[in-house]
Amino acid sequence: MQLKVMVTGKNRKIASDISDHLVSDRGYSVIKCASSKEALFNRVPAEMPHIIIICLGDETTETVSVFDVLKECTKMGGITIIVIANDADQKLFINNTKLERMFFMSRPVSLFAFYEKLNEIEKTVEEGQKNGSTLITEFVNPHASDLPPRKHILVVDDDSEQLFNIKEQLKEFYEVTLVPSGEAALKFMSRHRVDLVLLDHMMPVMNGPQVLEHMRMIPALEHVPVVFLTGVTEKDTVVKTLVDYKPQGYIVKPSTKSELVAKIIDIMG
Predict the structure, then answer these.
(1) What is the pLDDT of residues 81-101, one digit of tens each?
(2) In the chain, is it the N or the C terminus that has fewer CB atoms within a 10 Å radius of its CB?
(3) Contacting residues for 139 by C-beta, under 8 A, at least 6 apart
């Protein structure tokens, strides 16, 4: 089958070589993506690749932390992450990543081991089964789930900077998932339980009221609390939405941490 693969990372030579092999040897659809939070967060939900390959090179704590955004993206569906690195970069990545599950592959790249893993992933996609690997080492982060379960908040906004700001404000108290569109929000909620939705009022394709209308027609979602995120100029429109759809309220952007937390506490306790 033809897998969709996204290739990213600082090591452009490795990324280019891997991309060429995937196209010429395997016939895969390859998407190249810049290694920035904004690029990854915006492109992964849009492309929904089966595999993300991260090609590391001379990393720092800051450059490694960029890939933490993939933790949000991989919640939207089954995505396998493969990290290609030398020993030093692999150690740095393991010590600083928030990703929960990935496969490491050492440089220089063994195409035999790499293709064997790709064969396994093809079977996983086709059969819905997960298989292990003897030639590529899987790493499961032992610190990813140290904290007890917390209330889960889904934040929906087409502005990536706004999303990351809200997560910074709420991550101390809540489990926070970020999605960049109304379609991605509905898809995520069809697979995962959420306790509250912070929903941008104005978005392209499917706006906040349309998302809420869909939620109210789905029994599993009709009682999920929704708070609209809105700009000052949209307040009159939001008032109409409050009357028509009866969400739990709205917050004017940009909001402070105290405003966000106070609203959430008011709704969920």
Answers:
(1) 999 999 999 999 999 998 888
(2) C
(3) 94, 101, 102, 103, 104
